[in-house]
TrEMBL record:
GO biological process, alphabetically ordered: tyrosine biosynthetic process
Transmembrane is among the record's keywords: no
Pfam families: PDH_C (PF20463), PDH_N (PF02153)
EC number(s) stated in the UniProt entry for this protein: 1.3.1.12
Keyword Acyltransferase on entry: no
Lineage: Bacteria, Pseudomonadati, Pseudomonadota, Alphaproteobacteria, Sphingomonadales
Name assigned to this protein: prephenate dehydrogenase
Residues annotated as domain Prephenate/arogenate dehydrogenase: 5-293
Key words, A-Z: Amino-acid biosynthesis, Aromatic amino acid biosynthesis, NAD, Oxidoreductase, Tyrosine biosynthesis
Coiled coil location: none
Amino acid sequence: MLPFARVTIIGLGLIGSSIARAVRQHMPTVRVTGHDADPDVRARAEALGFLDDVADTAGASVIDADLVILCVPVGAMGAAAAAIAADLPHDAIVSDVGGSKASVIEALRTALPQATIVPGHPVAGTEHSGPEAGFASLFHGRWCILTPTDDAPEAAVVRLRAFWEALGANVEIMDPRHHDLVLAITSHVPHLIAYTIVGTASDLEEVTRSEVIKYSAGGFRDFTRIAASDPTMWRDVFLNNREAVLEILQRFSEDLTALQRAIRWGDGDTLFDLFSRTRAIRRGIIEQGQDDSRPDFGRAHE
Ligand SMILES: NC(=O)c1ccc[n+]([C@@H]2O[C@H](COP(=O)([O-])OP(=O)(O)OC[C@H]3O[C@@H](n4cnc5c(N)ncnc54)[C@H](O)[C@@H]3O)[C@@H](O)[C@H]2O)c1
Ligand SMILES: O=C(O)C(=O)C[C@]1(C(=O)O)C=C[C@@H](O)C=C1
């Protein structure tokens, strides 16, 4: 039996449109309704045809939903939740896909005090955004972390787990604060480092004017992919996961200082030992089948 019959997606960008496409592929009888605050995005989503209905207002989009997933930037979660409050059916489950969890849970709880809320985060994405960027296989073999609070009914968590598993994801349950710390090191700080290195290179104007473009087939190119990620989404992630990001950054800058010292004093053993350890980590990731460096990754491949 399907976990839900009528799913509403609010926010029709990369993640929202990927969920809609994946539902259509894996659960074709489920009706998917969508809404986006931007009328241009609504029109593009309608033309792309991955939804059964596009609603002009948030309220109209949820009127008979049994699952509502908020797929907007984390700083907009509170406003998106407030916009559905008056029309949300009392037995609907509300979820989200935000990249940080503690502050999103607070915003959703404040806007929807009576609702059944099961927050989520599919750990899968690309540097692209908008409804054209989504694709149905985005969640295949990837983690989706659910961070239910203690008062969430077990039955709601079980249904949402079944939903994500039907889209091909592996589901893990995590405490929201632990999620925010783990994602700070695995996703948020790596993005900050990429934004910094590309920004630094572009500030060194006489180098970048031609050389950066000319020689960017190397390591720098990988940083530019990450640094091309959506500015609104990432601004919101850093403002909403401030404590965990600052804690990890403190540790990172201490480790960077240690490397600086090793280079200054010609301590090759320290450098070699670290680089050997990190190479083993990369090889472990590939052995587990989680290598994203295949050339087609991040492109629509439905
Ligand atoms: N991009 C990724 O790699 C990735 C991965 C996992 C989770 N996430 C999370 O998914 C969420 C969406 O990210 P995305 O990459 O799909 O972004 P996106 O920019 O592609 O799409 C976001 C959409 O939300 C709409 N929107 C903004 N405020 C709204 C509101 N109040 N009501 C209705 N619509 C609104 C925008 O118009 C836009 O179309 C973010 O919370 C992000 O943290 C992103
Ligand atoms: O692959 C990418 O481009 C991503 O940045 C995806 C990524 C990540 O850091 O792994 C980005 C943000 C998320 O919330 C989840 C996944």
